[in-house]
Amino acid sequence: MRLAIRDKLTHALNGWVSRKFNSVLCSSPFSWTKVQKMITPPSETPKQASIGRLFAVGIDVGCEKCSISVLRPDKTVVIKPLEFTNDAQGYAFVLTKLESLGVIPAQITIGLEATGRYWENLYHYLARLGYNLILLHPVQTHQFAQRRGLRAKTDALDAGTIARVVLSDEARPAYVPGDLVATYRELVRLHSNLADEIGRYRNEIHALLFVIFPEYTQVFADPCRPTALSLLKLYPSRQAIAEVPIGILSAKLIELSNGHYGLKTAERLLTLSKKSASSGLASNARAQGLVILCDQLLHTQANLEILESEIAQLLQKDEAAKKLAEIPEFGPKTIAGLRAELGEVGRFTNCNQVVAYAGLDLTVKESGKWKGKVKLSKRGSGRLRRLLYMAALVSLRLKVSAFGDYYRELRKRGMNGRSALMAVMRKMLITAYSLLKNDSTFDPKKVWIGAKFVAKELPLVAQVA
């Protein structure tokens, strides 16, 4: 059966070539050039000829060690995967291998995978030497390796995969921020991490205090407020409070609260400590843990205030931040976050690219009669979506807000609350992009035609909140 099919295909192909050849011979004027084009195997395309002397280099970056592999455009291996250290000595080794290729740096394209911060030093070292660099997102290389059907994953294989991605037409360079955006990112992301740490410490203090002295919250509703926290550091258990003379406890409360608390609060604390429902189990160990948590919380809060001061100074000097401050719904923290995560907007050609970068574009999955739900792709910056989500919630609480009016208009048209909120987030992102890209002035009428507007009164250099 297979032989019969093969014979038929061969016969049909021969007939097609014969007809084409006869048509050329019968054409006027006759040209052997046309015949030669038909019978001569296709040569290199202009694109292949232009990159004939180029080399593709793949570097898999790690914390301590990296791997490098070099391929030609025809994917033949020039340098098998080699390992080098991620330091100055390793960079010199890489430079020696690249110079051994015998071409100028401009004829070598190097791909690196964006692994944490470990790629940064090597990337800028090679950039200063004039090499063509492509920073690749790990998702790209992972999907490319899956399509190749690789069953193993090693640093050497990853280096070869990165080189092959560079040779393909599928390489999408990741964004490499400049100094200003990199500064924003360091400060804003550290601020976010410290804020999360504060939340974790507060939760642990609440949980530990519940078994040490559960009645403490009857006196101090929030035990993580300055006075309550400082008192817990001095007397971290109900036994410790019960043993303190009322005069000393009262004087300490007056000192810690600047006179806000005094004798009555001390009497109530002593009464509750003697009637506490605490089991007293592992009281010493838990008291020590509570003191450590209080210290950590106070120290992290002090560091957070330092970061907020640094961010406020950066915003004051940034003209783009002042442009974003025209939007009433954007506070200093949101503006700093947008500058950090959105970066230089000049690299986007239209607003659709910005929406996709934030992961706010829609995805549809359909197959035959099956119709999937339309969802957000969420393939962009999660931090950027979080900022926009909080700003959208703020717009709903403001009495006068163009974005809040836009949300309510969408709800009147029948859109559900979640979809309307996502639409507000997209509208905020596009508005911010337009202000930065076109250096225009914020106009609430462009958000929604029926919007009202009140000038923003909050100063840009206010405390980041």
From TrEMBL:
Keyword Heme: no
Transposase IS116/IS110/IS902 C-terminal domain sequence ranges: 322-408
The keyword Oxidoreductase appears for this protein: no
Keywords: Coiled coil
Regions annotated as coiled coil: 297-324
Superkingdom to which the source organism belongs: Bacteria
Transposase IS110-like N-terminal domain span: 57-214
NCBIfam families hit by this protein: transpos_IS110
PANTHER family, sorted: TRANSPOSASE FOR INSERTION SEQUENCE ELEMENT IS1111A, TRANSPOSASE-RELATED
Protein name (Swiss-Prot/TrEMBL): IS110 family transposase
Lineage: Bacteria, Bacillati, Chloroflexota, Chloroflexia, Candidatus Chloroheliales
